[in-house]
Amino acid sequence: MRLSCIRLPRVVLGFVVLTGLGGMSLVEAQTPAPAGAASAAAYNIEVIVFRGTGPREEGGGAPPARSARDADSASGTAQAARFLKPLPASALQLSGARQRLATGGYKVLAHAGWTQTASSWGSRSGLPIERVGIQSPGLSGVFLLERGSLLHFGMNLKFTADNGASWQLSEIRRVRLNEKNYYDNPGLGVIAVVTPVAR
Fold first, then answer.
1. Are 170 and 62 in contact (CB under 8 A)?
2. CB contact at 8 A, 29 and 168
3. What is the structure's pLDDT at 60?
4. How far apart (Å, rounded) are the C-alpha atoms in residues 34 and 117?
5. Is 166 in contact with 185 (CB distance < 8 Å)?
6. Going edge to edge, which strands form the sheet with 180-184?
7. How large is the angle between the packed helices 95-103 and 10-19, nearest 10 degrees?
8. pLDDT at 65 over 60
9. Model confidence over 82-118: pLDDT tens digits?
10. CA–CA distance, 6 with 83 (Å, rounded to integer)
């Protein structure tokens, strides 16, 4: 996605019009993390996965290749993401957004929250959706939380409907902490909030 010309796909554009969230930033650089932060820090993750109204899509955007700028400062120190615990319902922040999606004609496929550590950037060591408590017919894939010099969140998800039509969403990018981050294509979308766990 080029930052110089951001064009909102139809799923997010419809949601922005529906909720009046047009002023939200999609991407923001983070303060560089010290070496070893991937293994030390924990994050609360909350996601809503929803179906849009777009046409069937085959494939999807592939996650970006590992870059030297975002790579870990020390070679051979790759860390795998670790699931720590599910979030209680009382800790979820996106219930209002879920309700607005449902009343706006979108099909909510999943809403879940959990705590995890980050993996090293480029490792693509994600957590399967079943591991984070998502059991949704037709939905499969993983969520990715990676840290090099910056924190990235993304997913590689596929939804197959009863009639065989399928949609895939594969994207990973820098996240704005403590705020809604939007990922989508014309048929499948995710709203995510990533919050550092206080130590």
1. yes
2. no
3. 45
4. 15
5. no
6. 83-86, 107-117, 42-51, 188-196, 180-184
7. 100
8. no
9. 999 999 999 999 999 999 999 999 999 999 999 999 9
10. 33
